[in-house]
Amino acid sequence: MQQVEKKRKSENKIIPFIPEGDFYFTKGVEAFQKRKFDIAEKWLKKAMEAKPFEPLYACQLSVVYTETGSYHKANQLLTNVLQASEYADCYYLIANNYAHLGLLNDARKHANIYLEKEPDGDFTEEANTLLELIDIDEDDMDEDNWDLEEEDDLLIYQETIFYHMENKEWEQALPLIEDMMLIFPEHRTAVHEHAYALFFTGEEERAVEIEQQANSEDPDNLYSHTNLALFYHQLGEEEKARHHINVLQNVYPIHEQQKLRIAVTLAKTGHYMEAYQRFRPLMKNQMKSHLSYFQWYSIASYRVGEPSKALSLWEEGCKRHPKLSKEEGPWKMI
């Protein structure tokens, strides 16, 4: 009788299922293949928590970031892997990201390192193709007019700062902007990024002073007007903001990035219909890495009576930029 009772107790025991890294990794790859990048990121992060020293998991997560245009974030992850191991695939993946960023010297360097380490590796064909494309691209450039190494350094700063600014990581952006201002004093846009980051770290007065000075020196500067319009709006000084908004309403730049800056500024200052009209003609294929495009285009769309468009933009933005999912949707911001 005792033996039967023991058997029953044994059969009633539930053995908990504790997923290991491979399970999470498989789920992450499945989500990635369905292009559900936000879900893929969550699963792959769980895989990395389960097996923090498995380089394959980090590499796959970097590919997710590459697909969503977060090239700097991808390379940061891959660099961390290389610091802990000699996982050669990282070199090709880094090279690919640098190529996307236009940093051709760095792309070539890492592609060659990969080929040295893995002459018959999984990415050998891709690495050789990448090097051929880099050579073709550079043949088209006038090397007498460009210092490629200096240009690469500037682009690295710009891309890194852009990533932090888009993600509202002001404390990380500020020291990089200050370094760039010292190294590349001729790059005047950094002054405006500096003021913007200062404003949102609590130094509103200093930020306004910087932009007022810049605006007095160059009254036609677009970045001064976008910053001052937003600064004064945030400070509740609507009459002062109105002056700069009026200027922006009469400016139609050629470059997509400047067009986006005006559209976002108009949306942030409550001019939703005008913002919506500025967002519509933007070339979407150039906006994929801009979290602000999806966020504020979605908000403007919702405010002008286009809820389905707003939802579509928000969902795509969350897939490409998982951090956006932590923000309130446009329907909650009324």
TrEMBL record:
The protein's name: Tetratricopeptide repeat protein
Pfam family name, one: TPR_8
InterPro entries: TPR-like_helical_dom_sf, TPR_rpt
